C-alpha cells in the first residue's frame, strides 16, 4: 500500500490534538482543494466537518454490522420533519473531542467559534414536532437503541425570516447551497414511487381476485445518509433522508418529439417533491404536493425497511418482531395503506394476515388536538393521486365498520365518527382515524394531552380500543440543550456532581441541596450572567438594540400562533409600559421582553402580531420616560442555533397557551432545565413541570383546561365585559386600536382588536389577562431578591431530570416498540 495512503488512514482515526491538526490540513488540501492561506471560514468548516466525519465512519459501520449480526429489532421513526440544527458541535461534543478540536484549530490560528458559525442550520422542520424527532435521534443513539430516522432531504428548509419595516418577509433557506459535509449520497439506494394511474383487477395464480396499479407516473427516491453520533461515540445510528429523482425513461417520448424543454420541465416537476418543507400552515398544506411528499418518503422508507428485513427472513410473520415503525403525527399515516399494498399486492399475503402484521408494526404519536391541524385529504384527491390506496382505505374501513356495527346496534352517529371517511361536506379521509386503526399503540405527548385525546378527538376509538392510547410525555436531550448550549452552567454542574448527568439526567437532582449553598448560588448566577451577556451581544448584532444584562430576560420563543398567545404577552408589555410611564419615580425592576418565532406565510393574524411586536418595540425602546426599564426585542429567524443562544440566558420562560391547546411544549423543558422560572398556564407538559419543580418554583396562572372547556361550552363569555372592568387592559387595547403604535396606519391592528372583542376572543386572552399580570408582578417582586430567585432557579434545573428525552425514548422502547440496546462490537477498529 502507498505509504502516504497508510499515513492518512491512521490520521483519520486519531483523536488527539496533533492528529486532528494534521488531518485538518490534509482535508483542506486534498478534499476542499484549498491552500491554508486562501481558505475561507466556510472552507475550514467543511474541512473540520469532514475530518470529524472520518472519526465516525468506522464506528458507524460497526454499529450497523452489529444490528445485522444480532438481527436486532429496529425502530423506524418516520417523520416529515427533523429539526436537527447544526451538527459540528454536536458531533464533537458527543465524541468527546471538543477541547482537542479547539486546540487543534488554535494551533492553526483559527477560532472554533468562527468555524462553528460557518455551518448552516439544518432547518428541516417547523417547530416542536421536528425538534422532538431530532432529540429522539440523539437519545436513541446515546442509549444504544437501534433507531433509524426516515424523512425528506428538503433542498430548502423552513424559510428564512427577515423583518422589513417590521413585517415578516420570507426568503428561501438554502442550507445545501455549498454542499453538506455530513451526508453520504447513496445513488444505489433508489426506490420507485408511483403516483396517479389506475388499478387493474386480475385473478392471481390460485384464482383469487388481485389488483395491480398501472399506468402510473414514477419518481425515484434516492437515499442520503447522515450518521447520528450517540453520546460517547459508541453507537452511531442513521438518519436516512430521501431526495426525489426523475426516472431515466421519464422523458424519452418528449425527446423523440424534439420537445427538449418540455422533457426538462417534467424532470424538474418530478424532482419538486423534495424541494421545499411546507410551513405549518392550514391552507398551504391543502396542496396535492404535500400529500405527494408524504407518500413519497413513506413509500420509500417502507420499501427500504422491507428490503432490510428480507435480508434475514423469508416470511413476513416476524416483521413486527423485527421492526417497529413510529408515525410522527399523521404525516406518514398513508404508510398503513402502503404497507398493506406492499404485503398484499406485491408479496401476495392474505388480507387478514397483512392487516395483523401492519397493526402490530405501526404505532402513532398525536401532537395536536387542533381540528384544523388534523389531516383530512379529499377522497377525490387520494383517488386520483393514489388510486390503489383509496381502495385499500375503503376496504379497511368497511371491515372495521362491519365489525363495529354488530356491537354499535344502530348508533349511526357513532359509526360515522369512527369512519375513516368524513362524509360531511366534501368527503375526506381522516388520517388520524387511519393512523389510530392501523396502529397497536397510540400516544399523546403529555399527561393532559393524552387525557384530552381520550375525551375528545379519539373518544369513540378509545371506547373501542381501551388499551391502545398511552401517554409518552415529551423530553429534550440534555446533550444539546444543556451540555452544548450552556457550557457555563454545564461545567459548573459537572464540577459539583460529576458528569453522570449527561447520560443520566436524573442525577441532576443532586443539585437540589446546592440550592441552599450561598457560594453555589453565586456561581450559578455568574453562569447565567455570562449567558445573558452573550445574548445581549447577539441582540445588539441582530437588532441594534442595547439591553441591560441585569434586567429580567423574559423570553417567549416558539412559532407565532394565536393559541400560544404572544398577544397576551404583548398586552402585558403595553400595560407595564403604561405603569412605568405613570410612575416614573418608582424603582422598577428592569425588564427585557424577548420574543422570537416564525409565522406561517399565509397566517395573516400571526404575521400581524409580529408587526405589532415590532411596532410596540419601536415605541417603547425609544421612549426616554421609561429609562431603559423596559425593552422589547423580536429576534429574527428563530431556529435551533438561535435557541441555543437564547435559552441559556433566560430568566423567565413564557408558556402561556390557552389551557388545553398546547399538546406538550418542549421549549418549556429546555428553559426550565437551563434555570429559567416558568410563568405559565396549566397546559401541556407545564402541568408535569409544576409537579416536578414544585408549585413554589413556578408561576402558574389562568384558567384550567376544564374551565376553558366549560366557558366555551356555555358560551357565556363576553370579552367586552372583561375589558370594561379592567382599566389597564382597556387602556392597552385602546392604544392598539387608536394607532398609538401605528401612527402611519391607525387601523392596522383592527383585526387584532376585533378578534379580542366582537370576535369573541376564542383564545381567551382577555379572560386570563388579570391573572397573568398578577403572576408577572409576583415574578418581578421575586427578582428583587436575587438569592431567592437563584434558589428557585437552581431547583428548576435540579428537578428537570425526568424531562430528558432519554427517559421518553426508554418508555417508548419498553412500552411501545419492544426494542433493546445493542452494544456494537468495535473490536475490528484501531483508533482508541
Ligand atoms: C407540536 C405541539 C407541541 C409539542 C410538539 C412535540 O409542536 O405542543 O410539544 O409538537 O410533541 F404543538 P409544534 O410542531 O406545533 O411546535
From TrEMBL:
Annotated keywords: Allosteric enzyme, Carbohydrate metabolism, Glycogen metabolism, Glycosyltransferase, Pyridoxal phosphate, Transferase
Obligatory cofactor(s): pyridoxal 5'-phosphate
Record field: catalytic activity: [(1->4)-alpha-D-glucosyl](n) + phosphate = [(1->4)-alpha-D-glucosyl](n-1) + alpha-D-glucose 1-phosphate
Keyword Glycosyltransferase listed: yes
GO molecular function: glycogen phosphorylase activity; pyridoxal phosphate binding
Positions carrying N6-(pyridoxal phosphate)lysine: 670
Gene3D superfamilies per the UniProt record, alphabetical: Glycogen Phosphorylase B (3.40.50.2000)
SUPFAM superfamilies associated with the record: UDP-Glycosyltransferase/glycogen phosphorylase
GO terms classed as biological process: glycogen catabolic process
Catalytic activity, EC: 2.4.1.1
Keyword presence, Transferase: yes
InterPro entries for the chain: Glycg_phsphrylas, Glyco_trans_35, Pyridoxal_P_attach_site
UniProt enzyme class: transferase
Protein origin, superkingdom: Bacteria
Entry's Gene Ontology cellular component terms: cytoplasm
Family of the protein in this entry: Belongs to the glycogen phosphorylase family.
General function of this protein: Allosteric enzyme that catalyzes the rate-limiting step in glycogen catabolism, the phosphorolytic cleavage of glycogen to produce glucose-1-phosphate, and plays a central role in maintaining cellular and organismal glucose homeostasis.
NCBIfam families attached to this UniProt entry: P_ylase
Entries under PANTHER family matching the protein: GLYCOGEN PHOSPHORYLASE (PTHR11468), GLYCOGEN PHOSPHORYLASE, LIVER FORM (PTHR11468:SF3)
Name used for this protein in its record: Alpha-1,4 glucan phosphorylase
Species for this entry: Azospirillum thiophilum
Amino acid at each position: 500500500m502507498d505509504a502516504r495512503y497508510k499515513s492518512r488512514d491512521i490520521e483519520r482515526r486519531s483523536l488527539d490534538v496533533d492528529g486532528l491538526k494534521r488531518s485538518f490540513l490534509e482535508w483542506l488540501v486534498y478534499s476542499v482543494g484549498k491552500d491554508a492561506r486562501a481558505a475561507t471560514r466556510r472552507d475550514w468548516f467543511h474541512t473540520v466537518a469532514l475530518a470529524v466525519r472520518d472519526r465516525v465512519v468506522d464506528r458507524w459501520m460497526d454499529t450497523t454490522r452489529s444490528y445485522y449480526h444480532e438481527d436486532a429489532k429496529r425502530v423506524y421513526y418516520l417523520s416529515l420533519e427533523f429539526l436537527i440544527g447544526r451538527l459540528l458541535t454536536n458531533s464533537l461534543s458527543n465524541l468527546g473531542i471538543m477541547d482537542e478540536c479547539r486546540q487543534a484549530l488554535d494551533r492553526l490560528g483559527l477560532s472554533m467559534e468562527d468555524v462553528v458559525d460557518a455551518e448552516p442550520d439544518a432547518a428541516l422542520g417547523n417547530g416542536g414536532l421536528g425538534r422532538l424527532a431530532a432529540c429522539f435521534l440523539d437519545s436513541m443513539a446515546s442509549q444504544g437503541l437501534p433507531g433509524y430516522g426516515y424523512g425528506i432531504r428538503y433542498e430548502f428548509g423552513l424559510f428564512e425570516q427577515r423583518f422589513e419595516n417590521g413585517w415578516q418577509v420570507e426568503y428561501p433557506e438554502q442550507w445545501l447551497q455549498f454542499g453538506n459535509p455530513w451526508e453520504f449520497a447513496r445513488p444505489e439506494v433508489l426506490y420507485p414511487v408511483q403516483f396517479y394511474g389506475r388499478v387493474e383487477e386480475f385473478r392471481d395464480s390460485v384464482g383469487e381476485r388481485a389488483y395491480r396499479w398501472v399506468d402510473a407516473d414514477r419518481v425515484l427516491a434516492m437515499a442520503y445518509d447522515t450518521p447520528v453520533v450517540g453520546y460517547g461515540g459508541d453507537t452511531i445510528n442513521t438518519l436516512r433522508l430521501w431526495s426525489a429523482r426523475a426516472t431515466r425513461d421519464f422523458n424519452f417520448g418528449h425527446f423523440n418529439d424534439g420537445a427538449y424543454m418540455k422533457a426538462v420541465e417534467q424532470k424538474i416537476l418530478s424532482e419538486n417533491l423534495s424541494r421545499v418543507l411546507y410551513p405549518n400552515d392550514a391552507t398551504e398544506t391543502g396542496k396535492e404536493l404535500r400529500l405527494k411528499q408524504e407518500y413519497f418518503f413513506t413509500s420509500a422508507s417502507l420499501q427500504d425497511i422491507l428490503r432490510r428485513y428480507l435480508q434475514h427472513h423469508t416470511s413476513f410473520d416476524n416483521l413486527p418482531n423485527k421492526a417497529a415503525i413510529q408515525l410522527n403525527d399523521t404525516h406518514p399515516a398513508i404508510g398503513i395503506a402502503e404497507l398493506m399494498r406492499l404485503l398484499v399486492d406485491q408479496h401476495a399475503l392474505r388480507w387478514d394476515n397483512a392487516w395483523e402484521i401492519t397493526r402490530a408494526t405501526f404505532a402513532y404519536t398525536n401532537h395536536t388536538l387542533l381540528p384544523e391541524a388534523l389531516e383530512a385529504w379529499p377522497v377525490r384527491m387520494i383517488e386520483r393521486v393514489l388510486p390503489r390506496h383509496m381502495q385499500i382505505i375503503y376496504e379497511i374501513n368497511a371491515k372495521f365498520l362491519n365489525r363495529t356495527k354488530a356491537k354499535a346496534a344502530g348508533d349511526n352517529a357513532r359509526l360515522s365518527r369512527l369512519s375513516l371517511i368524513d362524509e360531511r361536506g366534501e368527503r375526506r379521509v381522516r388520517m388520524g382515524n387511519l393512523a389510530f386503526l392501523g396502529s397497536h399503540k397510540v400516544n399523546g405527548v403529555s399527561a393532559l394531552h393524552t387525557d384530552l385525546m381520550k375525551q375528545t378527538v379519539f373518544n369513540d376509538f378509545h371506547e373501542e380500543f381501551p388499551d391502545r392510547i398511552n401517554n409518552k410525555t415529551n423530553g429534550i436531550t440534555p446533550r444539546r440543550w444543556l451540555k452544548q448550549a450552556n457550557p457555563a452552567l454545564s461545567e459548573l454542574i459537572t464540577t459539583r456532581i460529576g458528569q453522570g448527568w449527561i447520560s443520566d439526567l436524573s442525577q441532576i437532582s443532586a443539585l437540589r441541596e446546592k440550592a441552599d449553598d450561598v457560594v453555589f448560588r453565586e456561581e450559578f448566577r455568574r453562569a447565567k450572567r455570562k449567558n445573558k451577556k452573550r445574548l445581549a451581544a447577539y441582540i445588539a448584532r441582530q437588532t441594534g438594540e442595547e439591553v441591560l444584562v441585569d434586567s429580567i430576560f423574559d423570553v417567549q420563543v416558539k412559532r407565532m400562533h394565536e393559541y400560544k398567545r404572544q398577544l397576551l404577552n404583548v398586552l402585558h408589555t403595553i400595560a407595564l409600559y403604561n405603569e412605568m410611564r405613570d410612575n416614573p419615580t418608582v424603582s422598577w425592576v428592569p425588564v427585557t421582553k424577548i420574543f422570537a418565532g416564525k409565522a406561517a406565510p399565509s397566517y395573516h393574524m400571526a404575521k400581524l402580531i409580529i408587526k405589532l411586536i415590532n411596532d410596540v418595540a419601536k415605541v417603547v425602546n425609544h421612549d426616554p420616560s421609561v429609562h431603559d426599564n423596559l425593552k422589547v426585542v423580536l429576534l429574527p429567524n428563530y431556529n435551533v442555533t438561535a435557541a441555543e443562544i437564547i435559552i441559556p440566558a433566560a430568566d423567565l420562560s413564557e408558556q402561556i397557551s390557552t389551557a388545553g391547546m398546547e399538546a406538550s411544549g418542549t421549549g418549556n423543558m429546555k428553559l426550565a432545565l437551563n434555570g429559567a422560572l416558568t410563568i405559565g398556564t396549566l397546559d401541556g407538559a407545564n402541568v408535569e413541570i409544576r409537579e416536578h419543580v414544585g408549585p413554589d418554583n413556578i408561576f402558574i396562572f389562568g384558567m384550567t383546561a376544564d374551565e376553558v372547556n366549560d366557558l366555551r361550552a356555555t358560551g357565556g363569555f363576553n370579552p367586552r365585559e372583561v375589558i370594561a372592568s379592567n382599566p389597564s387592559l382597556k387602556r392597552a387595547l385602546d392604544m392598539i386600536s387608536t394607532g398609538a403604535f401605528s401612527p402611519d396606519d391607525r387601523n392596522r391592528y383592527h383585526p387584532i382588536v376585533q378578534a379580542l372583542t366582537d370576535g369573541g376572543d376564542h383564545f381567551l386572552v382577555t379572560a386570563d389577562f388579570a391573572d397573568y399580570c398578577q403572576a408577572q408582578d409576583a415574578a418581578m417582586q421575586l427578582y428583587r431578591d436575587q438569592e431567592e430567585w437563584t434558589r428557585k432557579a437552581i431547583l428548576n434545573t435540579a428537578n428537570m431530570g425526568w424531562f430528558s428525552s432519554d427517559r421518553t425514548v426508554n418508555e417508548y422502547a419498553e412500552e411501545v416498540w419492544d426494542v433493546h440496546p445493542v452494544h456494537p462490537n468495535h473490536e475490528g477498529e484501531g483508533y482508541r
